[in-house]
Structures
1.
Amino acid sequence: MLDCLIIGAGPSGMTAAIYLSRANMKCKILEKMGAGGKMTATSVIENYPGVERVDGFELAVKMQTQVEELGIEIVNSEVEKIIKGNGFFEVVAEGETIQAKTLIVATGTTERKLNIPSEEKFINKGISFCAICDGGFYRGKDVAVIGGGNSALEEALYLARLCTKVYLVHRRDEFRGESVLVNKVKHTPNIELVLNSQVEEFMGTNKLEQIKLNTGRIINVSGCFEYVGQYANSSLVKEFGVLNDEGYILVDQNQSTKIFGLYAAGDVCEKKFRQITTATSDGTIAALSIATALKS
């Protein structure tokens, strides 16, 4: 029986594995895709401490190598079901049943997209889902932000400090975000509100160059940041009653849920900021909390 089974090989899951190994805990990671999570879809990372500039895929590989050199197995397998036993968990993954004393759910989130035909072509070639991660690449350029909630408003304000012009495109004439943010946006000179409008098409050759709206307007931009929502990959633990109204996993300061032995880390948790550094922090805390609990 494993001391801990980690579901998800993003930065939080791999960090947890490293700390569990150092605490002599027997663990394994299950990952249905490739190791690295959203890092692998990030062209350049410049905000990871100690690493001035690194390709997201390269950083993911470095983390994976470190994990595997510690003898921790990363198994490409999709979890189908989690069963709570008496003092342990049974995890069914592609026909195999794995028993573990504790679980760390580190399954991340999935970004909601606009789902228009030209969108996929320009993801990571002008289309981004994280202004803090990628905003620096558009310093002194014109960009668009799509959305009307707090995230869209906050990121428009952030980008306005870097970019020459920010077009804030929203399908309605009023914003869903907090009034204080709306007021700040309206009083920021280089943010142009483009209301009652939706993106109809992304255009460009090898990278994004223009967005076409349903009103017929065409806007020249170097980048476009989509904030039309995201959803937590938390369906595996829905039956345990550990989710908030938006589907994110509720945890305490130890990254523990109300179910004994069930922990969560990274973007799948209820939290304000979702960055690689916050994910690695969660993984560290979860691992050390488990090590402490099992040794007591």
Note: Residues 15 and 180 are 37 Å apart (CA to CA).
2.
Amino acid sequence: MSDPTAATKISVIVCTRDRHETICQALESIIECDYRCFDLHVMDQSTNDLTRRAVEALAVEHAQRCRLHYHHLDKAGLSRAYNLGMQHSDGVLIAFTDDDCIVPPDWLAQIAAAFREDPEAGLLYGQVLVPASLHEQEAAGNVVPALPIRRPERLSQRDGFKVFGMGANMAIRRSLLDRVVGFDEAMGGGGPLRSSQDFDFAYRTYLSGMAILLVPEVRVDHYGVRTRAQWPATLEAYGIGDGAFYGKHIRCGDRRALWLLGKILVRSWAREVRRTARDRSWAPDIYGRNLLVGVRRGAAFDIDRKHRLYRESARAKLTVTEANTVTATRRRSKK
């Protein structure tokens, strides 16, 4: 029997930077998907040619199975890589995952099915799970960022909205780009505002009138480990990015964004009080403290108010910063 979703082409975008040791395991898991109508675009921001060589060898090896396109970016930045990947691809649907994730064989088929069942959906987030092989890492106090989704949800102007999602497992309908022109290149890893490009994109999707789906059947395993020493810097980046996200929309006169920021600040201050009382010493909440840092840094940029995107100003440029530090982990052999 023919595959009813085969006519819907999916372009998969994987952004990477200096991860030649693990990028191939991520790409091979995508190539092994049981969906037949897709291509794969690697957006490489590496500082050497090791990733290019690894990807080009993989493209030759799997040429009969999947078209694997390699693109090198001279300027780093996750949001910039996303935007260029969308420009270089032509799929009706566009799926994104990270270079430290492994997808199951039904990943693309589940994405296609979810969009087919809801024509009003513009954006989808799936689960990002911690593989069993990394449970010992968590037990040792390290952190593997994850996003469990316990039940399907639909976020829209009719159904309501919440800030939720993770760029390691998301997909969009290309027609959404007629309303939401792309990711904010001041935000995200490697950008001056560090993170939260996915939250910002989701919020602008909501404002556009298209729906956001949270689909537990769409899942990936995440092999990116933050050690105890690395985690505070990750929290700092999350706080800066979230503050810049809320601050931008507040400057556009968005009362909902002001309410969301106020609520998250109250929660942060409450955590700080609880930890200080428990430990009997001052215990600052790193994430919460950096929310206001993000608001302040974002205020240095101009704003394209029509599209709600940060723009360079005399005080702030789209300079490249270091990516969040992650210890990439290899998947254990299936043999």
Note: The longest helix spans residues 255-279.
3.
Amino acid sequence: MYWVLFLLRRFVHAVTILICVLAVVIVGVRMIPGDPVEIMTAGSPGITEVQRQQLRAQLGLDGSVLSQLVTALGRTAHGDLGQSIRFRRSASDVVLERLPATMELTVVSMILALAMSLPLGILAAINRKKLFDAIASCVSVLGVSVPSFVLGVALIVVFSLKAKWLPVAGRGGDGLVVSIAELLSGGDPAAVLDALAHLALPAFALAFSVVAWNTRLTRSAMLEALNTDHVRFARAKGLPEFVVVMRHAFGTALIPIVTIVGLQLGYLLSGAFIIENVFAWPGVGRLAVMAISWRDYPLVQAIVAMTAALFLGINVAVELLYQLIDPRIRHAASR
């Protein structure tokens, strides 16, 4: 019963936030200077004003901003995110075609960030006020200070233009997941290597700032956990240091780490919008920039709706996860 009520509350909360986000975006994009119909008909000098008005009516752009807002929210409630002005087909279909590339970049970046930050944070806590702790602190400060797009350009210059080790831009075929699936069914291993080569620079550029935050968080959480009574008791029993650190201390420090990882996945989704344009990655972020320049209102709304839904879904999943990790949270919330 608790889980049913929990999911129901979170669903209502997520729908409310999603409606507010869509309302802000629908009004905001229509305040951008420029008429999408004029942009679409710029290459057709023979079109009349009557035909332009008919096109506006077809696209739902003929009424006031308030009427357009009500119409757009009503369509969204029925699962219709509109028709793309540029592509002349369902905006949701266009976004779904680009979504796998963005999700692939985001997930690989998070895996890379955790693989780097967790060992750094744990070792920094164990070696507090020693050389390794100072090195980890320097990495953290550098990661927070350098913007991802600046790091991305620097990586392109060093590893692509100078060393010529990795490709400058693009995704490389159909991406890493498809390449691995084809390899398992007897495909070419070179496709996987090519996908990894295209993914390496954008994933590292996107993950580096997350590495900085997670290293600092892991270090502070581990320092607090190492001073708890149950960790001292584990040491007093004579357990190996590795077991004390990884099983007892790290298990306690896992709650704040899991919580922040959920927020960082949303941060990576938004950060991917910048990195995708730096590396010409064919994802939702690059599509969003083009949709804004085209004044493709339905496409922008579809991108925002799907991105917001993903972010809200990630938050609910993370909240479920850390309640499973620590049942005390569930019991406290049920009181």
Note: The mean pLDDT is 81.
4.
Amino acid sequence: MAITLSAGKSDAGTRLDHFLQSQLPAYSRARLQDWIKRGLVLVNGCSRRASYLVRESDILEVSPAELPPLRASAEEIPLRILYEDSDLVAIDKPAGMVVHAGAGVREGTVVNALLHHFGSLSSVGGELRPGIVHRLDKDTSGVLLVAKTDAAHRALAEQFASRSVEKVYLALVHGAFSTDSGRIDKPITRDPVRRVRMTARLEHGRAASTRYDVLRRWPGFALLEVRIGTGRTHQIRVHLASIGHPVVGDRLYGAPAVVAGMPPLGRFFLHAHRIRFRQPTSGAEIVVESPLAPELADWMGKL
């Protein structure tokens, strides 16, 4: 089933392969570039090179190709299932667990655990990313959707690409807020100095939008409910840090290593609390929630 995408004003001037990766995060860049070379990506009905610069109002049609057999191996690792049907499963990902293999990580991932529990998953995401429709950072806990079938994977990927999936996070941040809510609209790009970081302090990058509501305040801290309209790398962490409110424990983006009078947290305080989407086959609205991770609730209770 082909996936149709529309380029907006903020996408103009973006390389074709970069645009596809931002819209279809479930697929690797190598896989997307391979599809471009094979003519499986059409821009206004024509094949283009990966370096083609997308124009506003371009219509793209992506025809995902079948992939070779899975290579990720099954491991007997406990998983907490929040929701399951014949098309997909939603798990409660713990902090410290990488979603899929990469950058020297080959074992102990969510994918390894999923293959042990379910045997086979969607092959659309690639040999090392079976079933993975979207990702969470290693130290982010909470709801993660996984596709069992290729058809379900494509349907869910299209929902993410069209931004019809609602993703709600809980974040404890440093600093005091004078207002109860806010919105951050800043482009995000790779930090030119520290390549492991992203930044929202430059005028160029991929468009990103983050909304937040203050749920509770303490002296020097605030608990936020955060909604993201886009899914850029480290988006919530980058955006909150850019307005002077780094996520607690997130030293990469400026949070202090030690909080006076508090025990070490051992991770950053960001939790994927709720996700709302359409069931791929029936179209019914589904909402899956993950309670705040125990270590986060315990730490917050000591404030």
Note: The first helix runs from residue 16 to 23.
